[in-house]
Design goal:
Elements (H helix, E strand, L loop, with lengths): L1 H26 L17 E12 L10 E14 L2 E19 L2 E19 L2 E15 L4 E2 L4 E14 L4 E19 L5 E18 L1
Antiparallel strand pairs: 1-2, 1-9, 2-3, 3-4, 4-5, 5-7, 6-8, 7-8, 8-9
Length: 210
């Protein structure tokens, strides 16, 4: 009788072992892998804005020979993989800032610039650099005549922009602009010369984001 009971117990163990193992296998689920979702700081989209500041031929725009500048701008940003890239067009009145040429000075009055932008978003703050082309309207000054129309040049810059909410942001930007081969005519001596002129601009602006 004892041998029979022992045989039945062993048989039950062999039968229930695979069933128990199967239950454990079915109960275990491998953890699923979810690809991390990139965090967008909300800089993608179009915007328009206004800006104002100072412009000077000297590297310090707050020097005594500075002039007031102001204008409008607009552009589009796209954020991808933690980098913001975009483009912007701006129009500015330079306040007739004087730039040196042989035998005197000329005056820069208007500027139209188109530039590319690359920046690093830090939450609601964007640190960026810019580079592009600029067309500058140059006027005659006392005793010196300048070129007619607009003269092409190039522009580099850097800035910081901060979003106060989804629509409104403020920024501060520095620009260095150089215009090459500017022809000037000295009315007193009758001499003609060509030279490169440059200016430095610091401006603050407010943007509205769509």
């Amino acid at each position: 009788m004892i041998k029979k009971s022992l045989a039945l117990a062993l048989a039950a163990t062999f039968v229930s072992g695979p069933v128990f193992a199967a239950d454990l296998t079915n109960a275990y689920e491998a953890p699923s892998y979810n690809e991390p979702v990139s965090q967008d700081s909300g800089w993608t989209g179009g915007y328009v804005g206004i800006h104002a500041g100072t412009s000077s031929e000297r590297s310090n725009p707050f020097s005594g020979d500075k002039e007031f500048t102001g204008g409008v701008h607009g552009g589009y940003n796209m954020e991808t993989n933690g980098v913001v890239v975009g483009g912007e067009v701006e129009f500015s009145h330079l306040g007739d800032v004087e730039v040196n040429v042989p035998n005197g000075n000329l005056q820069e009055r208007y500027r139209l610039a188109g530039k590319a932008k690359v920046g690093m978003p830090l939450g609601n703050t964007l640190i960026y650099g810019t580079g592009g082309v600029a067309m500058t309207s140059i006027r005659d000054s006392a005793g010196v005549e300048g070129p007619d129309g607009w003269k092409p040049g190039w522009q580099l810059g850097a800035g910081v922009e901060h979003k106060f909410n989804q629509q409104i942001s403020g920024r501060v930007e520095y620009n260095y602009t150089r215009t090459g081969d500017v022809r000037s005519f000295d009315t007193a001596s009758g001499t003609v010369a060509e030279s490169d002129v440059k200016d430095h601009t610091i401006k603050a602006g407010v943007n509205y984001h769509f």
